[in-house]
Amino acid sequence: MSLHYAVGKICTEVAEGFKVQFSKEFIATVADLAFRQAGIFAEDLEAFAKHAKRTTVTIEDVKLLVRRSKSLHDHIEKMAANFVKGKNKKKITDEEPVIHTIDLDC
Description:
The protein is mainly alpha-helical. 68% of the residues lie in helices and 7% in strands.
């Protein structure tokens, strides 16, 4: 699913709930902003991992990224706990869960 399509669907749901309409230009602008913000997040996550002398982004990097948004931080904490529970069912380990691997040597 493309980001623009996903933003359009979310705007449609919000519009129905609040009895408003969003123009195509508005939806395109929100999609562009979301894309740019995702790029900034990716750069920050890479920088956090690199600063810790790692080549992988971990859940701790994600928590650091969202530290200023309490609701998002709480959501990430819940997701991490569920991820660890699911991982421990398969294999017991003391390793920190890795969310996404990024090659920083590019």
